[in-house]
Amino acid sequence: MRRIALSLLIATGLGACASNEMSHDRAATAVQAEARSAALADRFQKDLLGALTAAMAAEGPEGAIGVCSRIAPALAAQLSEESGAIVRRTALRTRNPAALADATERHVMESWTDAPLDENGRPKQWSAMEGGTFRYMRAIPTMPMCLACHGEAIAPEVRAAIRAHYPADEATGFRPGQLRGAFSIRWDEAALSRATGVGAATIDP
Ligand code: HEC
Question: What does the pLDDT look like over 37-60, one tens digit per residue?
Fold first, then answer.
């Protein structure tokens, strides 16, 4: 890449080349950060769904609440520690108040509320640089198996168990196909340059 940039420098003059190289680095960083973020979201989704499905089969929704409330935050912490990014779930209506959305997350999720899937049937994704921070989000759609704990008709004993853990629960009343929430991943400048091998100074001047 350096070599291409250098011949461009000779061909086009310093000014044009310097900005070409800068935007190329920025674009390359964003592509890498997006791929790494998508891989983290994949793992979060797969591991959580696996644990939840097993717990639902073994214990039913009432027993699975405890699994969900222990495993989801533990997975988020583990993936954050491994990657250096901040990995979490968020939602417009939350069960765990720790999942409350910030302004950017709220804005992105509001645009996905009734159509969380893209034209290929995959959860919608979004990413952007925000200052020196790279942010990635992926929609989490409501599926039929979620309704036992997030739907419109939750069994009274399940509702009571949820209330006992989460007195401020707002995450009910969802229908299949609606947006339930999102994975939200955030790389600060230092984490980004460690993860992509590109110097932070070239990412956002
Ligand atoms: C057994 C009950 C149960 C089922 C089934 C269930 N959830 Fe949850 N969900 C919970 C609990 C409990 C929490 C709070 C977890 C925590 O403390 O982080 C939660 C939290 C969430 C959150 C984080 C945001 C928030 O509101 O706190 C998302 C997103 C979510 N669930 C999506 C889903 C999806 C999608 C499905 C179906 C694939 C699903 N859940 C199925 C119990 C359940």
Answer: 999 999 999 999 999 999 999 999
